Automatic annotation (TrEMBL), chain A:
<dbReference type="InterPro" id="IPR020568">
    <property type="entry name" value="Ribosomal_Su5_D2-typ_SF"/>
</dbReference>
<dbReference type="Pfam" id="PF03725">
    <property type="entry name" value="RNase_PH_C"/>
</dbReference>
<feature type="domain" description="Exoribonuclease phosphorolytic">
    <location>
        <begin position="30"/>
        <end position="169"/>
    </location>
</feature>
<dbReference type="Pfam" id="PF01138">
    <property type="entry name" value="RNase_PH"/>
</dbReference>
<feature type="domain" description="Exoribonuclease phosphorolytic">
    <location>
        <begin position="200"/>
        <end position="263"/>
    </location>
</feature>
<dbReference type="InterPro" id="IPR050590">
    <property type="entry name" value="Exosome_comp_Rrp42_subfam"/>
</dbReference>
<keyword id="KW-0271">Exosome</keyword>
<dbReference type="InterPro" id="IPR027408">
    <property type="entry name" value="PNPase/RNase_PH_dom_sf"/>
</dbReference>
<comment type="similarity">
    <text>Belongs to the RNase PH family.</text>
</comment>
TrEMBL record, chain B:
<dbReference type="InterPro" id="IPR036612">
    <property type="entry name" value="KH_dom_type_1_sf"/>
</dbReference>
<dbReference type="InterPro" id="IPR004088">
    <property type="entry name" value="KH_dom_type_1"/>
</dbReference>
<dbReference type="InterPro" id="IPR003029">
    <property type="entry name" value="S1_domain"/>
</dbReference>
<dbReference type="InterPro" id="IPR048565">
    <property type="entry name" value="S1_RRP4"/>
</dbReference>
<dbReference type="InterPro" id="IPR012340">
    <property type="entry name" value="NA-bd_OB-fold"/>
</dbReference>
<dbReference type="InterPro" id="IPR026699">
    <property type="entry name" value="Exosome_RNA_bind1/RRP40/RRP4"/>
</dbReference>
<keyword id="KW-0694">RNA-binding</keyword>
<dbReference type="Pfam" id="PF15985">
    <property type="entry name" value="KH_6"/>
</dbReference>
<keyword id="KW-0271">Exosome</keyword>
């Protein structure tokens, strides 16, 4: 990451204070978002999202597994993120591990809800095939190819798009068996079920610079932040997850204010993402 | 190249058609571009000097790089397009300080070599001898990450560092603005690299290394004094608009001259384009069309 001189830092901070960021955006304006789905043919679902200079790919693979004994009526989802060295040379080797695990944890919190599975954005019960015996395991992988700030929002959007693109094969449980045996299953090659993503939330990161918050910070602006709060909101306006980064502490009233700003921004972001995703799916169907 | 740009710019159907049409008009009639091992036609009667990117093989002159063939008097050379900046003596460059060493500052120039600034080459230093107090005070003048503007001098004997000169008050530390990075080949050599746009009160410095500075006009005579006043909203808008004009021209691959930049700036005003929308596909197509018109007229 290139540092900024004192003069440039003042310029960035002053711009944010005057509602004129370095590329002319207002504080609550997103950069143009570009969505492409079906980029990885071998995966059950995939998507590539570009927000300005940030470029990420998300893929979803479904495999047959056993539900955990604590939650026998739900499937399992695991989220892994990899920051590629092509984004930043410092991500090579083990350099990107800290950031990757931080992002994966934040995404899991936003998408999967609590330990009991309550409040999950993804409906885990829909992944169940036979209670206690067979379920779908979803492995969601995110790859950061180019990093220009706001990785979490981009990854959240990519995962939402990838899940919309996901088709899980239909499974027929062939025969009734005794309780301690695994049932035989027949995975259909023909019939697929689209994954239901109506309740998958989007993530909005609010970066605090000085006394103002901005949405969709570039890498330059992120270097000047005092703290950042990422809030994931779903279609109905409920908060599914909350993550705070950054060294400086925040007054609780500031957090409440940020939450209301995030809810307001989510409305436009959610509709924009939905239209971009459906356009991408339509494009993919044509080609 | 045109197809690549279309994908980057996300043009819709009508925009694609307009863009392609304008790009066609911009294609030059004579095609001087060459790839490796193309032969360069020249008259054996006149003595031609073979410059960079050429080599004599079996009595024939072949190119060794991909680029554009240029003839300057008797010199024939191949100018590459996407190469790293190669510092030439007398060039104006903009750089960022990356290290404060014992008696000098190391400056990043977006080139294979770093630049070198010593206190001997700063303004107000008339053959000053380096005392130990000077060395301790180095951080008062320039620190890491500061942006400076300088002229390129000779390169060191071992070729590792390029000497930079900042002798007159024109050069020095830059603040109150933003630094933009473009491909070095878009900034051509000219007589004037500092441009003071009076109507807007803005300094525009086109560094030949591809670093471009757009900022508020430095008022004080001593460029090392930092002025902490807040930039007015009007000046800031002009700075951002010019910055975005440069970004658009750089994405489209058009050579950057102050005239072209100001034209793009004025175009954005006449078309009532919001500053942020200048980076959108519609404005890119407009700029391409206007450039095509300008070149066919000229």
């Amino acid at each position: 990451m290139v540092g900024l001189s004192i003069g440039e830092q003042h310029f960035v901070k002053g711009g944010i204070a005057q509602d004129l960021r370095t590329d002319g955006r207002k504080r609550l304006t997103y950069r143009p978002i570009y969505v492409e789905t079906g980029v990885i043919p071998q995966a059950n679902g995939s998507a590539r999202v570009k927000i300005g200079g940030t470029d990420v790919i998300a893929s979803v693979k479904a495999e047959i597994g056993r539900p955990s004994s604590l939650q026998p009526d739900k499937g399992k989802v695991a989220v892994f993120i990899d920051c590629s060295p092509t984004a930043e040379p410092t991500f090579g080797g083990r350099g990107g591990e800290e950031l990757s695990s931080e992002l994966a944890l934040a995404l899991q919190r936003c998408l999967l809800g609590g330990k009991s599975g309550a409040g999950a954005g993804i409906n885990l019960s829909s992944l169940l095939i036979k209670e206690g015996k067979v379920c779908w395991d979803l492995y969601i992988d995110g790859l950061v190819i180019s990093s220009d700030g706001n990785l979490l929002d981009a990854l959240g959007a990519a995962i939402k798009a990838a899940l919309t693109n996901t088709a899980i094969p239909k499974v027929n449980v062939s025969a009734e068996v005794a309780d301690d045996e695994q049932p035989e299953i027949d995975i259909s090659d023909e019939e697929y079920l689209q994954f239901d993503t109506s309740s998958v939330p989007v993530i909005v990161t609010l970066t605090k610079v000085g006394t103002h918050y901005i949405v969709d910070a570039t890498a330059e602006e992120e270097s000047q932040m005092s703290s950042a709060v990422s809030i994931s909101v779903n279609r109905v306006g409920h908060i599914c997850g909350l993550t705070k980064r950054g060294g400086s502490g925040l007054d609780p009233s500031v957090i409440l204010d940020m939450i209301s700003v995030a809810k307001h921004v989510t409305e436009t972001l959610m509709s924009k993402l939905d239209s971009e995703i459906s356009a991408a799916e339509a494009c993919e169907d044509e080609s | 190249m045109g197809k690549l740009r279309e994908v980057e710019l996300l043009l819709n159907q009508t925009q694609k058609v307009r863009f392609e049409r304008a790009m066609e008009r911009l294609q030059s009639r004579t095609n001087n571009s060459v790839i490796v091992a193309d032969s360069i036609p020249f008259n054996h009667d006149e003595a031609f000097l073979k410059g960079h990117g050429t080599s004599l093989v079996d009595g024939e002159s072949l190119t060794t790089v991909c680029g554009v063939v240029n003839h300057v008097d008797k010199l024939v050379y191949v100018r590459t397009l996407r190469a790293r900046y190669k510092a030439e003596v007398g060039d104006i460059v903009v750089g960022r300080v990356i290290e404060v060493a014992q008696s000098r500052w190391r400056v990043e120039l977006n080139s294979t070599q770093d630049g070198l600034l010593t206190s001997m080459n700063m303004p107000d230093a008339v053959q000053k001898r380096n005392t130990s107090v000077d060395e301790l005070n180095m951080r008062n003048i320039l620190v890491e990450d500061d942006v400076v503007c300088a002229q390129v001098g000779e390169s060191q004997r071992d070729g590792s560092l390029q000497l930079l000169l900042a002798r007159s008050h024109k050069y020095g530390k830059l603040h109150k603005g933003q630094l933009l990075k473009v491909d070095p080949y878009l900034v051509r050599r000219s007589n004037l690299h500092f441009h003071f746009i009076e109507s807007l009160g803005i300094d525009l410095i086109l560094g030949r290394n591809g670093f471009i500075w757009v900022g508020e006009h430095a008022q004080s005579n001593d460029p090392m004094v930092v002025d902490n006043e807040i930039i007015s909203s009007k000046t800031r808008q002009s700075i951002l608009r010019i910055g975005n004009a440069i970004r658009v021209l750089s994405t489209l691959g058009f050579t950057l001259t102050p005239a072209v930049i100001m034209e793009t700036f004025n175009l954005s005003h006449t078309e009532n384009v919001q500053i942020h929308d200048m980076l959108g596909s519609e404005f890119h197509v407009l700029v391409t069309e206007r450039e095509a018109e300008r070149r066919t007229r000229a």
